[in-house]
């Protein structure tokens, strides 16, 4: 169910990762890892009979980005343009588009992502959240989930960037709380009114070690809005 596609580049965590509201817990939790990718290829497949569909964003030869460990010793794994077709390195996002309100330009969506490093370690997560039109044809998605995970069963337990940099994927827990944002511009000013392809998208994410009682997760309020990047 998780599918790949590749990415690389040099982007780094910097900026306003908005309000993290963990339901059921007043303890503040620190962000332990993050990722960010630009120049993803976005497309939307509309089911005309239902008015709903699926949005995907995949890595291309132009994609760049990073996956960064912020906990303890830290480390940044880099993804540079041109490495995209070097299996197994990949990046893939898939998010449903349901309950569309074309007037208010809002919708809901449940999604998943898969990011793979240079030798088969995989970061996956599933989440739910909301789509919103933010002006000039741009569309933003923010979602959160409780089952983000670094899987080293096919790798070596170290996250290795295809363009350099690495870090240990041992965070001392099996799963992390996570949040994801995507931003892209739809080809026309209709809000998911028709299928489209080949639009440029960017994606960002953060991960947190869940505090006691935090797995109820009423939502990781996401202000991520793509501000994570730029180097």
Described by its quaternary structure, the protein is: single chain
Q: Give the termini distance in whole angstroms.
A: 33 Å
Sum up the overall morphology in one term. globular
Largest sheet: 8 strands, antiparallel, barrel
Strand/helix succession: EEEEEEEEEEEE
The domain tally reads 1
Q: Helix fraction? A: under 10%
Percent of residues in beta strands:
over 45%
Strand order of the largest sheet: 1-2-5-6-7-8-11-12
Count of DSSP-assigned helices: 0
Radius of gyration: 17 Å
Contiguous uncertain segments of 5+ residues: 1-28, 214-231
Strand elements, count: 12
Nutshell version of this structure?
The protein is mainly β. Helices cover 0% and strands 50% of the residues. It has one domain (31-216).
Question: Can you walk through the features of this model?
Answer:
- The chain is mainly β and 231 residues long.
- The protein has one domain (31-216).
- Helix content is 0%, strand content 50%.
- The chain is built from no helices and twelve strands.
- The chain has strands spanning 31-47, 52-58, 64-69, 75-79, 90-101, 106-116, 122-135, 138-151, 158-160, 166-168, 176-185, 196-208.
- Strands 1-2-5-6-7-8-11-12 form an eight-stranded antiparallel beta barrel.
- A hairpin with a 4-residue loop joins β5 (90-101) and β6.
- It is globular.
- Residues 1-28 and 214-231 have low confidence and may be disordered.
């Amino acid at each position: 169910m998780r599918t790949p596609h590749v990415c690389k580049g040099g982007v780094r965590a910097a900026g306003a990762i908005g309000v993290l509201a963990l339901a059921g817990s007043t303890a503040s939790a620190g962000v332990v890892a993050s990722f960010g990718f630009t120049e993803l290829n976005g497309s939307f497949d509309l089911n005309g009979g239902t008015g709903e569909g699926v949005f995907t964003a995949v890595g291309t030869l132009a994609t760049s980005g990073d996956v960064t460990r912020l906990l303890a010793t830290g480390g940044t794994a880099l993804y540079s343009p041109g490495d995209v077709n070097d299996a197994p390195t990949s990046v893939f996002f898939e998010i449903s588009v349901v309950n569309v309100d074309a007037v208010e330009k809002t919708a809901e969506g449940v999604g998943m992502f898969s990011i793979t490093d240079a030798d088969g370690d995989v970061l996956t997560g599933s989440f739910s959240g909301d789509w919103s039109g933010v002006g000039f044809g741009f569309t933003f998605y923010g979602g959160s989930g409780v089952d983000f995970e670094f899987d080293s069963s096919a790798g070596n337990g170290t996250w290795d960037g295809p363009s350099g940099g690495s870090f240990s994927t041992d965070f001392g827990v099996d799963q992390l709380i996570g949040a994801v944002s995507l931003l892209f511009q739809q080809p026309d000013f209709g809000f998911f009114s028709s299928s489209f392809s080949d639009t440029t998208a960017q994606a960002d994410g953060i991960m947190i070690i869940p505090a006691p009682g935090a797995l109820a997760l009423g939502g990781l309020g996401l202000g991520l809005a793509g501000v994570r990047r730029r180097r």
